[in-house]
């Protein structure tokens, strides 16, 4: 559905995006993450046709944004961080205006507007003036204008920014539902949002894609070892010796408890060799020795940990100098 091929946007005295390359299939909901200034908004503006790349190509359902911009844009719905609303209009008059802009056939206006009003929970507010809407309902209306023309690709920039917790939950549920009929690219700073909604994660840093992975596979792609938090009832020395003797165990150490408690249990962190799953071996060894396992939980890097690891590594001055972008020609 979306192909971004070797795309760069270069500015004078300012880092843009540098040679980014990724694609999206129909039905995917992809989280697009990065620190401020990393290039997220620039990338989305190029995908939607608001900016032209310095080099590279962008295809929407096989249509080049450079060669067929009007046809390509018809396949895109865009919700910027601040929804493009006219505060003096009513909800219905605004959606009719958007329908005309989007070349929706006049005979379909009433049906399409009715569909998005129902889908976005705007019933009963059709005649309400937009300036009087809460921020949550303005965000819903922004989503309504983005999907009114039934786009194949939906692009959203910080769709839950500034909302209260209840509104955030509602908008997340709406986005998840939209993913059934649309391909969705979602930019956000709220990392739990990605875990709650997305089935794939892109992380951009300093204008480059530094991670492209499904959430459940991120740990493996980062070279993360297989670790288990284990609580076992029994004598500490015996348990440490038995766990450490397993062939697939690389290391084992006792963990300190957050609060001092009198207990006959031992709390361990067990790290596997070669990232092997050691849970079954641990279960059978403790069962054989008669030591009940009270808790066994796999531990992995959180998305927050991975994000910080990928976006806070500083480069030396030589690397920075070598990677200075070319100056975009304005001739």
TrEMBL record:
CDD domains: ABC_DR_subfamily_A. PROSITE patterns: ABC_TRANSPORTER_2. SUPFAM superfamilies: P-loop containing nucleoside triphosphate hydrolases. Coiled coil: none annotated. The keyword Nucleotide-binding applies. SMART domains: AAA (SM00382). The keyword Nucleotide-binding applies. Residues 319-331 have a biased composition (Acidic residues). Residues 312-331 are annotated as: Disordered. Residues 2-231 form the ABC transporter domain. GO terms for molecular function: ATP binding; ATP hydrolysis activity. InterPro entries: AAA+_ATPase, ABC_transporter-like_ATP-bd, P-loop_NTPase. Keywords: ATP-binding, Nucleotide-binding, Transport. Belongs to the ABC transporter superfamily. This is ATP-binding cassette domain-containing protein. It comes from Paenibacillus hemerocallicola.
């Amino acid at each position: 559905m979306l192909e971004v091929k070797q795309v760069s946007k270069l500015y004078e005295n300012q880092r843009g995006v540098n040679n980014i390359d990724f694609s999206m299939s129909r039905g995917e909901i992809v989280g697009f993450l990065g620190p401020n200034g990393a290039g997220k908004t620039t990338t989305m503006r190029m995908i939607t046709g608001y900016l032209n790349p310095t080099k590279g190509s962008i295809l929407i359902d096989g249509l080049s944004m450079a060669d067929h911009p009007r046809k390509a844009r018809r396949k895109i719905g865009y919700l910027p961080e601040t929804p493009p609303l006219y505060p003096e209009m009513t909800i219905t008059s605004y959606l009719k205006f958007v329908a005309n802009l989007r070349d929706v056939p006049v005979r379909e206006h009433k049906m399409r507007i009715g569909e998005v009003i129902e889908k976005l929970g705007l019933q009963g507010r059709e005649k309400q003036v937009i300036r009087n809407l809460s921020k949550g309902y303005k965000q819903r209306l922004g989503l309504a204008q983005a999907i009114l023309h039934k786009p194949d690709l939906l692009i959203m920039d910080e769709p839950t920014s500034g909302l209260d917790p209840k509104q955030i939950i509602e908008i997340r549920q709406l986005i998840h539902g939209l993913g059934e009929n649309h391909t969705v690219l979602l930019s956000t700073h709220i990392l739990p949002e990605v875990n709650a909604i997305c089935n794939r994660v892109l992380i951009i840093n300093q204008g480059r894609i530094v991670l492209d992975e499904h959430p459940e596979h991120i740990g493996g792609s980062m070279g993360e070892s297989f670790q288990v938090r284990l609580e076992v009832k029994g004598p500490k020395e015996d348990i440490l010796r038995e766990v450490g003797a397993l062939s697939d165990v690389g290391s084992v150490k006792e963990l300190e408890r957050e609060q001092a408690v009198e207990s006959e249990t031992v709390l361990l962190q067990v790290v596997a060799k070669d990232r092997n799953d050691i849970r079954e071996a641990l279960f059978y060894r403790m069962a054989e020795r008669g030591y009940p396992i009270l808790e066994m939980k796999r531990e992995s890097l959180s998305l927050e940990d991975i994000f910080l690891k990928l976006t806070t590594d500083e480069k030396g001055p030589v690397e920075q100098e070598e990677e200075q972008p070319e100056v975009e020609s304005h001739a």
